[in-house]
Prior knowledge:
Layout: H1 5-8, H2 14-27, E1 33-34, H3 46-57, H4 70-83, E2 93-96, H5 99-110, E3 116-121, H6 126-133, E4 137-142, H7 153-159, E5 164-169, H8 182-192, E6 199-203, E7 228-233, E8 246-249, H9 252-265, H10 271-282, H11 286-307, E9 322-323, H12 334-345, E10 347-348, E11 350-351, E12 363-366, H13 371-384, H14 392-398
Parallel strand pairs: 1-10, 3-4, 3-5, 5-6, 6-7
Antiparallel strand pairs: 2-8, 7-8, 9-12, 11-12
Helix pairs in contact: 3-10, 4-10, 5-6, 5-9, 11-13
The structure holds pyridoxal-5'-phosphate (PLP).
Pyridoxal-5'-phosphate binds next to helix 5.
Amino acid sequence: MKLSKLMTRLGTESAFEMLAKAKALEAQGKNIVHLEIGEPDFNTPSNICERGKKAIDEGWTHYCPASGIKEARAAVAEYVAKTRSIKAAPEQVVLTPGAKPAIVFTILALADPGDEVIIPNPTYPIYESATYFAGAKPVPLALREEKGFDLDLKELEAALNGRTKLIVINSPANPTGGVMAEKTFDKIAAMLKKFPDVMVLSDEIYSRIVYEGKHRSIAEWPGMRDRTIIIDGMSKTYAMTGWRLGYAVAPVELAKAMDKLAINMHSCTASMVQIAGIEAISGPQGDVDKMVAEFRRRREVIIKGLTSIPGFTCIRPRAAFYAFPNVKALGLKAKELAEFILYEANVSCLGGTAFGNFGEGYLRFSYANSVENIDEAVRRIKEALPRLKAKPQAAARKG
Length: 399
Ligand SMILES: Cc1ncc(COP(=O)(O)O)c(C=O)c1O
């Protein structure tokens, strides 16, 4: 069989590959601490589950409009306006099965072959994959530790040109846990005045998991609302990864294009899930506060633990649930070190290069796991690392 050429342009998310390797070890009877996958370990709050069950009994079990049930679109518009100081109308909202399709649809609906999409690096790998799929060119923009993993504005200015179609912003960020400075937003908004056709995809999926200050969206800056596509969803905030519910808030013309893509790809997002989603964003928010408080506690534990490992340094993440330690001192490629840690310490984490070339020299640990497991992971890594020198393969690469 010969697969289409299109398939050669599609990337993947290596978190799932690492998970598969870890699961294979578990199948052999090994005990693995999972710090690779980015999903809250909490249960979906009970009011949301109850609403979902009731929605099935009420008959929300049929097709609905491709962009979403009217009430769900209105609830999202209201939520987005309340959580950011912007106006949003229901016609701008497209609900999707998770935030991921909203990202891919935005890129497919905007980028033509020859267009350039400026993408931070390291970052969530789907932006680049979707850009290649659209036939457009990803232009990486390095996020450097020295700048707290914020954008380098000079490099952004140098990357912008007449072919730029879209800039991706992901604040709070995966994999670094970084938050973009308000000054950076000021400068981007000012810079984009010279490029009126450039759009911004602002992936704000971690908007509610912020430990210092308040979440800001570039859409709040003067002139930016009509050129920004806000992506958010229920997966991380409400521990709803398996329900598959996310959304885009986009200019109406683009929302209509995304509606057409939805019709072609999945028809609509599950009706009962949307009804549960209305409860998530409009109902009591106490469980979100509790989850964030627990993540904050774990952040302290993982930073203290990781920085106590010889060869590891780690800046304090300000949001999301990822730590991104610098492991350059160990002299190994990030992917190889992640594999060493998996096979020798039975701790599953990701090499920084799973998020792009500029992730070399870093590992990503998700701390959406218990304090006991985080402590155990640190203990195991400390115990295994002295064996690194004894590995001929690893030693050869060290030089
Ligand atoms: C930055 C970012 N955007 C989007 C997503 C996808 O979210 P969902 O599971 O709702 O598709 C993730 C998931 O890890 C993410 O880290």
